[in-house]
Specification:
The structure is a single chain. By secondary structure, the chain is an alpha+beta fold. Helix content is 39%, strand content 28%. A seven-stranded mixed beta sheet has the order 1-2-6-7-5-4-3. Strands 8-9-10-11 form a four-stranded antiparallel beta sheet, sandwiched between helices. Helix 9 packs across helix 10.
Length: 369
Amino acid sequence: MFETLKKKSFKKSLFTSILWIVIGAALLILCGPRAFHAVTGYQNFLELQPEEIKPGQIVEVDLYATLGCYAEMYEKKEGSSYKKTTDLYYAIFTGDENDEDYRIMSVKVPAILEKDMEKLYNDYWDDGIADTVYLCGTIKKLNDKEYSYFGDVIDAYGEENTLPYYIDCYTGKTAIDIFNIIGVVGGAALLVYGIIRIVSGSKNGFLKKFLKDIAAAGYTDSVIDSDYNRGISFPMTSSKDDSIKIGKLMTYYFDGAAPRALPNNKIMWAYQNTTTHRTNGIKTGTTYSVTVIVERVSTAYTISVANEAAAQNILKTMNQMFPWVITGYSEDLKKLLHSNRDQFVALRYNTCEHIAVDPDMSSSSMTEM
């Protein structure tokens, strides 16, 4: 039994564990470079020689000049002539004012910086002196559409004097730096957590709660092994999944990847719970479970099942095997449980000895849903 549960729990945990690892690795890859530069500092764009400029570099620059805006990006509402500018492309020089070996490339700035960029352009070309504009971002390569817009600049200065790159600038540097640092920390945590789950699952890590359930119920491993193997199986996720078992001593199920066991002699009430899922008001699916109320435990236990038939067959089996258990839901029972617990247990729980009886299996098969 324990080996069977170990394999099932490991299998159930594997997909989620791999998912955490993938998400963690993705966060590290996406946020890692910016988080690194947030801690160590951005590279000064003005110090880079033309041959040193490559896509992927994260840079900052006190921009001292621009050749002007050559393209804009905007969004347009469907069915309307209104359009809103989101980003602007400006041609800039590489290097500082004293560099004789320079090229012309681009910066893509949010529309909110248009006023500053236009002032920089006018001041520089009118007086030769302008207040710098601080920018930071990631160097990227112009795509085909962007490069076609850059064509006028190439025609004016020659292809050999240009670079097909741009600095993709962003505002809110501090917020972005914090976001990426948090992303790296979270990604590392998820990556480690996923690995720990895999290692733990391979070494009986998910059986700890199950062993505690058995110990708390006062049964030995050998007794539970026999009870489990003789239990009646029910599907949890699909018709072929026999993860739920009802024995005479305990009811066995999975809470996520962890196997659990409830002592049958402590169960007072069990009923079906149906949840309808909707997205934007449209029904997307229905899930079923069996809610179990146990004596002296304030929190209800939830056993997920494959379908409504499985839920009903579980309740039917409990009703036949455990005459002290109330099966089926009503608002009156719920109110009575919370208002007068003594009266609730007097309905069935305290009316008979808590010894399981063999269920009537002749009317329907409990394992075929």
